[in-house]
Amino acid sequence: MNKQEVFDKVATHLLTQMETSIDDGTCLYRGPRGLKCAIGCLIPDGLYTEDINKKLVNELPSEILRSIGAKTDEDVQFLRHLQRIHDQRPIYIWKYHLKNFATSNGLVWKL
């Protein structure tokens, strides 16, 4: 996936789910009731394991990173910024932060 495709998938996912994927105060790639975080929605089912839940995106195995389009450090930082929107921003302003993210990264806002 290119950056626009990654962004579109993450933004659509977050703004549809409108709930954090969290358990005991910890953000999870995949959490209770099928919830997924910004990056969790990108990870193919065959590569997901519960042991990655407590890792930041830059700590994920290279196989997972490649599968979601992260080939360079810049790509990983792009994903990390999306992860922060889910992990650190209140849900009611996700749309605002996603729009700003799109603008600052030269992406098209489609939602």
Please tell me about this protein's structure.
- α1 (3-17) runs parallel beside α3 (73-88), α1 runs antiparallel to α4 (94-104) and α3 runs antiparallel to α4 (94-104).
- The chain has helices spanning 3-17, 62-67, 73-88, 94-104; strands at residues 22-23, 26-27.
- It contains four helices and two strands.
- A two-stranded antiparallel ribbon has the order 1-2.
- The protein has one domain (3-104).
- The chain has 111 residues and is mainly α.
Average pLDDT for all residues: 94
* Sheet with most strands: strand arrangement: 1-2
Decide which structural class fits the backbone.
mainly alpha
Number of domain modules: 1
Q: How far apart, in Å, are the first and last alpha carbons?
A: 19 Å
Summarize the main sheet: 2 strands, antiparallel
Low-pLDDT stretches = none
Give the overall silhouette: globular
Number of DSSP helical runs: 4
Q: Helix proportion of residues, in percent?
A: 40-55%
